[in-house]
């Protein structure tokens, strides 16, 4: 894939007080290149409990390819491609929710716990063009 039709990819997860922060970060790193910086922001929940938000923004083309390569390992990649109309919004952002527990084990599955948001390049910035660019990138990564 010569060029990658994404401006950036954000990967984010919440780490609740009942979870081990190192394990949640390890799950997040399943999708990131080695030694990639993960941002950490500590917040308080409604009842005063600690919630840590772990996130990373990938912008470099090689790093974007790495994330797409990991995403293409989904067993449900055909489902993901079929749902692109529902997963790309009017701002040309592509969303996927991934299983945090599976990611901790190094597996890639749709589920809850990790959020992947990718800003799709589209000129002009139209949703339909973004859907086709996302489809093309995912199919190329799968090949």
What does this structure look like?
It comes from Haloprofundus marisrubri. This is RNA-binding protein. It holds the Pfam family RNA_binding. The chain is α+β, with helices and mostly antiparallel strands. The protein has one domain (6-142): 2-Layer Sandwich (50s Ribosomal Protein L5, Chain: A), CATH 3.30.1440. It is 36% helix and 29% strand. The protein is built from six helices and five strands, in the order βαββαααβαβα. It has a five-stranded antiparallel β-sheet with strand order 2-3-1-5-4. Helix 2 (61-71) packs across helix 6 (127-142). The radius of gyration is 15 Å and the shape is globular. The model has no long low-confidence stretch (mean pLDDT 93).
CATH superfamily: Ribosomal protein L5
Write the element-wise H/E pattern from the N-terminal end onward. EHEEHHHEHEH
Span from first to last CA? 10 Å
Q: Low-confidence runs (pLDDT<50, min 5 residues)?
A: none
Q: What count of structural domains?
A: 1
Organism: Haloprofundus marisrubri
Pfam family, one: RNA_binding
Protein name: RNA-binding protein
InterPro entries: PAB1135-like (IPR002739), Ribosomal_uL5_dom_sf (IPR022803)
Name the features.
50s Ribosomal Protein L5, Chain: A, 5-stranded antiparallel beta sheet, RNA-binding protein, alpha+beta, Ribosomal_uL5_dom_sf, PAB1135-like, 143 residues, 6 helices
């Amino acid at each position: 894939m010569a060029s990658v039709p994404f401006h950036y990819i954000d990967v984010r997860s919440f780490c609740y007080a009942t979870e081990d922060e190192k394990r949640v970060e390890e799950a997040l790193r399943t999708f990131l290149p080695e030694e990639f910086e993960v941002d950490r922001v500590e917040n308080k929940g409604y009842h005063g409990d600690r919630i840590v938000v772990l996130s990373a923004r990938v912008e470099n083309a090689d790093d974007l390819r790495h994330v797409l390569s990991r995403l293409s390992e989904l067993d449900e990649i055909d489902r993901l491609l079929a749902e692109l109309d529902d997963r790309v919004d009017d701002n040309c952002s592509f969303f996927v929710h991934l299983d945090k527990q599976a990611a901790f084990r190094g597996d890639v599955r749709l589920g809850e716990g990790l959020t992947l948001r990718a800003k799709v390049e589209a000129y002009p910035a139209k949703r339909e063009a973004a859907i086709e660019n996302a489809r093309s990138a995912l199919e190329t990564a799968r090949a």
